[in-house]
């Protein structure tokens, strides 16, 4: 493989989404990622369907779309880590790896001798990343953590959704598992930083990542709104707590996002919308005053917005340099000429499905472009290859392990 991380080997003991998202990102960047899976079962997400990838005859395969989401570019090795022989294989691979990634419960791998303390004795340069719901210490450390509950516990749902007094108002989760995905990205950042430290000093380290920590960290301006005032922000639907007008407005045939980020843009918008008196009104002249007077301003904007279709508004607002956009369904997202031009849809060879679609990594390198991606592997697809080339086992040893159910 080629890429910025070519030559880096990652031993991935994680499953579901947060850990696999991190290891997929590392694979995209050129690392060799060996995905360790349970014989006969594999990653839980293999069965999280429908939908499933189709074979060339149009029939469902065993590969769920969810699994394909986060396992591109990896090699699958099935190993029963509860057996001493399986533990020996993983230790062998860890001794020859740069990174171990896992999301078992706190202390769950220690009984197998696969925790950081044990593997660091074998490979002191190892970067070992643990992902859990609540971290390696603290009163909640032994609790399981899943994205949905973390979005709730971490405050995101308290600021997402329409207010209670609005029709259908209630706390809402985000439509994708953002706590998991953000944790995967923070894990990637942490691993790359630890590899830089390893290269400079020769020492590895343990990275402790918690979904709740990450969800708290990405509250961003909403967290600071609370910390600077002591007042917990509430739900505003599609409105923004610090910018007005910055929300979705009904048009004549749908909805339009209006994202006015400064006073100059507000003046331009008012000129286009026939609201020429508003920029000179002290109640609306600055963003600060517009936030304070949103209850009177927003209804006036709504009355203006329903006079044109979404496409009509986009045409005139873009010409006036006012940020705006439609609310696309996913079919329109992937039909969008900009998305297509940027190569965000790719089709990868798959041993059963022929070709499977994937959403490309968005990083565009000038010197080390992402290339050579492979589809998410079938269960155990690379077991023999890895055991021969990396673990240096003979065909006879491999067959003996397979007969014993170890691989």
Automatic annotation (TrEMBL):
User: Is Transferase included in the keywords of this UniProt record?
Assistant: yes
Q: Name one GO molecular function term.
A: CoA-transferase activity
What InterPro entries has UniProt attached to this entry?
CoA-transferase_III_domain, CoA-Trfase_fam_III, CoA-Trfase_III_dom3_sf, CoA-Trfase_III_dom_1_sf
Q: Which residues form the signal peptide?
A: none
Task: Print the keywords alphabetically.
Answer: Transferase
Gene3D superfamilies, per this entry?
Answer: Crotonobetainyl-coa:carnitine coa-transferase, domain 1, formyl-coa transferase, domain 3
Task: Specify the superkingdom.
Answer: Bacteria
Q: What is this protein called?
A: CoA transferase
- Whose protein is this, by species? Thalassospira lohafexi
């Amino acid at each position: 493989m080629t890429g910025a991380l070519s030559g880096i080997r990652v031993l991935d003991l994680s499953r579901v989404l947060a850990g696999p998202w991190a290891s997929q990102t590392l694979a995209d960047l050129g690392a060799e990622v060996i995905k360790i899976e349970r014989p006969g079962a594999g990653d839980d997400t293999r069965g999280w369907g429908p939908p499933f990838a189709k074979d060339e005859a149009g029939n469902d395969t065993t590969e769920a779309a969810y699994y394909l989401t986060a396992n591109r570019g990896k090699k699958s090795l099935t190993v029963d880590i509860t057996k001493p022989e399986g533990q020996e294989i993983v230790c062998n691979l860890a001794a020859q790896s740069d990174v171990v990634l896992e999301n078992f419960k706190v202390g769950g791998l220690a009984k197998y001798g696969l925790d950081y303390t044990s593997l660091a004795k074998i490979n002191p340069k190892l970067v070992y990343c643990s992902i859990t719901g609540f971290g390696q210490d603290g009163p909640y450390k032994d609790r399981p953590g899943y994205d949905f509950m973390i979005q709730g516990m971490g405050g995101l749902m308290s600021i997402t959704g329409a207010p209670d007094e609005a029709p259908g108002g209630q706390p809402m989760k985000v439509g994708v598992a953002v706590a998991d995905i953000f944790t995967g990205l923070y894990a990637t950042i942490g691993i790359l930083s630890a590899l830089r430290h390893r290269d400079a000093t020769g020492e590895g380290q343990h990275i402790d990542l918690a979904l709740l920590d990450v969800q708290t960290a990405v509250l961003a301006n909403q967290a600071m709104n609370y910390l600077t005032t002591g007042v917990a922000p509430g739900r505003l639907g599609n409105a923004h707590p610090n910018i007005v007008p910055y929300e979705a407005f009904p048009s004549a045939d749908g909805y339009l996002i209006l994202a006015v980020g400064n006073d100059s843009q507000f003046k331009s918008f008012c000129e286009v919308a026939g609201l020429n008196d508003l920029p000179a009104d002290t109640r609306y002249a600055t963003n600060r005053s517009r936030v304070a007077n949103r209850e009177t301003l927003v209804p006036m904007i709504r009355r203006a917005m329903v006079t044109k279709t979404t496409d009509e508004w986009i045409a005139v607002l873009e010409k006036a340099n006012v940020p705006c956009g439609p609310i696309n369904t996913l079919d329109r997202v992937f039909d969008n000429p900009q998305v297509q031009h940027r190569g965000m849809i790719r089709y990868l060879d798959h041993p059963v499905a022929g070709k499977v679609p994937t959403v490309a990594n968005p990083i565009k390198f000038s010197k080390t472009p992402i290339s050579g991606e492979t589809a998410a592997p079938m269960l155990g697809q690379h077991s023999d290859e890895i055991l021969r080339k990396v673990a240096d086992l003979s065909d006879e040893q491999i067959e003996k392990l397979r007969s014993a159910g170890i691989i």
